Amino acid sequence: MFGFTTISIDAKGRLAIPAKYRDQLRSQNEESIAVTRDPQYPALKIYPGSIWDSISSELQSLQGLDPIVRNLQWTILGNASVSSFDPKGRMLILLPSELQDYAEIKKPEKVSIIGMGNKFEVWNEKNWEMRQTGGALSTEILEVVLPESLKKISF
Amino acid sequence: MFGFTTISIDAKGRLAIPAKYRDQLRSQNEESIAVTRDPQYPALKIYPGSIWDSISSELQSLQGLDPIVRNLQWTILGNASVSSFDPKGRMLILLPSELQDYAEIKKPEKVSIIGMGNKFEVWNEKNWEMRQTGGALSTEILEVVLPESLKKISF
DNA sequence: GATTGAGTTGATCTATAAGCCGGATTCTGT
DNA sequence: ACAGAATCCGGCTTATAGATCAACTCAATC
Fold first, then answer.
1. How distant is the Cα of B95 from the closest Cα of chain A, in angstroms?
2. Which CATH superfamily is domain A2-133 in?
3. What is the ipTM of this complex?
């Protein structure tokens, strides 16, 4: 699950996982995915089911009053949306409008899906090109020194 | 896998791995290769399957909230493209246009393939000559102090 | 000079993404 | 409670990009 593809979101906010990624998910016995916010950039993250399970449970188990941790919990856990294969073997995601807004995605518009191995990122196409060419983004959300408790989780 | 060859990219962006490298890959039981960006220079890297597996999994396991790590993950994982032997025993790569742009490769044009032992590099022929004669390249992309976590990975 | 293997180019075919449409279900307002 | 409207969900069609297949040319070797 590497490399990137640009696909389009239809007028209803639906997004279809490209076949090459879908097949790999299926071959790894993943049956679902979770979409949520990227805590740092105006982008979305897609985690395969098993990865999501471990990340979300690790995040949930963190206690304490550290504002950064709580922020991450809100951002990541509070915005997640789970999808799975449809009867025809396809995988459609209906992107909640809050996530669309967050990632600055207007429909219908092109988005880039970036395969990072064990997860994907979804970017507004223009923002992704900006990133790739080193341009400045309008927003970079989280810029902090990470507490020890978060360092072992690879978001 | 050492030495140097120049081959050509056709109008469709196809690139054929030369036989001498192919045979070595096969004799080492490598069944696939991964092409991706070189993080420092306008060039591409080709890793044999097993090498790619270890590099990519190490990269994935790093904490992605670190901006430098994240950048490397984007550059290397997000631009990778995996190919394998075709039924005829040859190995063709369809170079994504973004990688062509990155390495400043226009088609049809000659590229240089440099064997570096456990990996290859692909350069625009002119840029490679520049490099060899000590001339300045138009771009050097990544110029940073590497965090400890990255030093053990040999890209 | 002939033959073989390799690099390169051209042509065809298949899978798939994208857009469109219609049915079903839910929500809302009267 | 009912009707209208909007939204959601699956099916279908078409254009396209990727993959496979095939052929040609050049170079090297015997």
1. 11
2. Transcriptional regulator MraZ domain (3.40.1550.20)
3. 0.88
